Amino acid sequence: MPVAFITGATGFVGHHVAEALIHHGWSLRALCRKLPPQSRELPGIAWQVGDVRNPDQVVSAMSGAEAVFHVAADYRLWARDAREIYESNVTGTVNVMQAALATGVKRVVHTSSVGALGLIAHGAPADENTPVCIDDMVGHYKRSKFLAEREAEKFLEKGLPLVFVHPSTPVGPGDHKPTPTGKIIVDFLNRQMPAFLDTGLNLVDVRDVAEGHRLAFEQGNIGEKYILGNRNLTLAQIFAMLEKISRVRAPRVKLPYKPVLWFAGILHFISLITRQEPLVPYEGVKMAAKRMFFDPSKAIRELGLPQTPVETALSDAVEWFRQNGYVKKER
To answer: How distant is the alpha carbon of residue 175 from its chain centre?
Structure first.
């Protein structure tokens, strides 16, 4: 039975990656800060308590693995101390890559993000080769993922067999924190989404993203990037789908961008004083200025990335949130 080391298995995407690998006969060693409540749900995992920010703990937990899936990330659009995001996403990535090089694993799959890729004006779908630089990064999360990817690329020159995957916007069951995207769905179901901005996302079933990780290990080319995505949709189209699935009325009011950005800026300033998370994240509003549309055809063509209908992913997400107490008693 092949053995893989995985980070982030307690998270939304990482948990599904772990499930996919176990389903295909892998045994896993997973690094986590503390044992998760659902640790018994994945019997194929040997949990190792530790932190990606601690290089010795990473090396110890990785020992004996022949593959590495570095999925862990601090995915927040606001933090009291932004340094925590960089320590986890950048320093943590360096530690994982150094350990993988030292232990001589067969291949590493590094989970980046489409947030670290370039965008095209007017909403045309971008791909893995769209030009991008650090100045294009909006907010600490995107900037940290961009920098983490640049650090990981340095290990290619040292001989590390590394493949990059860039999930777009995963949706589906099990988003327990939830992620910023999951929170949009939860707020929608709780009728706390009275209006929307004219923006767009590329949605993909989180289970397809998990399969994409496995396929990248088996079939991806060293040094290559693969966008794990599916369908480009405006936020209005996403809400229309959610209305059909949930029978909750979608918002009809489209907000002008600049006043919302101004309002979010005020809330951001207040949060700097109160140290409390703002109701509307300033970085999230800034991101909405451009439609994050992407072309996943390379991963479909070269990896065989599955393309589950996004309606299925949204439906399963709605059902999971309802069953797990995220939705108030519906009228």
So the answer is: 11
Q: Facing residues of 70 across strands?
A: 7, 110
Contact by Cβ (8 Å): 46, 30: yes
Cα–Cα dist 307/205, whole Å: 8
DSSP bridge pairs for 200? 234
How confident is the chain (331 residues) per 10-residue block, as mean pLDDT? Answer: 93 95 94 73 84 94 94 86 92 97 96 94 92 92 96 96 97 94 95 91 98 97 98 97 97 89 85 81 81 96 98 98 89 54
Do the strands 231-234 and 3-7 form a parallel or antiparallel pair, or are they unpaired?
unpaired
Spatial contact of 114 and 294, defined as CB atoms under 8 Å apart: yes
Q: What is the chain's mean pLDDT, rounded?
A: 92
Cβ atoms of 202 and 292 within 8 Å: the answer is yes
Identify the residue whose tokens are 């939304």.
12
Give the separation between CA 17 and CA 20, rounded to whole angstroms: 5
CA angle 153, 159, 161 (to 5 degrees): 70
Please enumerate in sequence order all residues whose Cβ is within 8 A of that of 106, keeping only pairs 6 or more positions apart, or say none: 66, 67, 161
In this structure, the chain runs to a length of 331
C-alpha closest to that of 289 among 123, 130, 60, 133: 123
Task: To the nearest 10°, report the CA torsion of 244, 320, 48, 211.
Answer: -40
Sheet holding 225-228, edge to edge: 45-49, 27-32, 3-7, 67-70, 107-111, 162-167, 225-228
CA contacts within 13 A on the Cβ side of 315:
7
Q: How far apart are CA 84 and CA 247, in angstroms?
A: 39
Task: Identify which of 234, 243, 216 has the alpha carbon closest to the alpha carbon of residue 314.
Answer: 243
Of the candidates 137, 275, 113, 87, the residue with the CA atom closest to the CA atom of residue 201: 113
Please give the C-alpha separations between residue 69 and each of 23, 57, 131, 248, in angstroms, as whole numbers: 15, 16, 26, 38
